[in-house]
Each structure stands twice: as structure tokens, then as C-alpha cells.
Amino acid sequence: MAESSLEERCVEVLDIPDDLDDEFLSLYFDNKRRSGGGSVVSLERRGKHALVVFEDAETAVRVVSKTHVLQNNTLTVRRKPPKDPGKLLLKGLNPHTSLDHVELYIENVTGMNYETDFILYPSPNKDLVVVHLKNPLDKGL
Prior knowledge:
The protein has 141 residues and is of the alpha+beta class. The protein folds into two domains: 7-79, RRM (RNA recognition motif) domain (Alpha-Beta Plaits, 2-Layer Sandwich); 87-133. The chain is 26% helix and 31% strand. It has a five-stranded antiparallel beta sheet with strand order 2-3-1-5-4. Strands 6-8-7 form a three-stranded antiparallel beta sheet. A hairpin with a 5-residue loop joins strand 7 (118-122) and strand 8. InterPro entries: Nucleotide-bd_a/b_plait_sf, PAR10_RRM1_2, RBD_domain_sf.
């Protein structure tokens, strides 16, 4: 196996139709001619999303560079975004939820203080809020 990190060998697949079988999806990404892929180490699916791990990073780069259409459905394939323990994303918020309520929620869940421990950044539509932590969360939380 190539000497590349797990993150470099992973791709995220989005917009997977419910009726698309996991084995078919794995075989597709294992087929270099059809998908640009190669040896699939693992495929973990959750609903309409999947994480595909390839044997080497070059395969992941090739797969991301192509357009993928399966059973007349276009799949979105991208590099897996890196995790940042200093940031949280709250999504699916009611746009009418006040930042004060979000602040109170974060304080109650984390035990942190808004004035000293974190900053809130709402999206323009107010349905997302990025919580920037001044100190990353402890894994036990």
C-alpha cells in the first residue's frame, strides 16, 4: 500500500440515490475505466453520502477530477473536508432563531463562556452558524 495518509486517500460521495446498491457503488469506484478509480479499501455509506477510501492518494485525485453519472444521477464527488477541532458548524437552524439562543445553547452544551471562549459567525441566511472555539474541544465532550 502506498505511503499516503488516510485523508489523502479519501473522497466523499454526495447525492447518492436511495436505490443505488453499496456493492454497485464500490464496484464503480473500483473500475478505473469508468470512474478513474482503483482499488477501494472501504466504502462507508450513510444515507445519500458515502466515504470511499482508496489504496493510494493518486486514485483519489483522479476520481475527484472526473464527473460521475450513475443510473442517470450525477454524483458529487469531492475531497473529504479536514476536521478542525477549533470549529463547530450548527446547521439546519430556523433563520428566526436569535444568536442569543444559539449562544446559550453552546454555553450549556460545552460549559464555555461566550465572552471568553468562543465566537459565533452566522451565515447570511441565518440557517448556519460557525462556532469558533478559542481552545479546541476535549475529545471527552
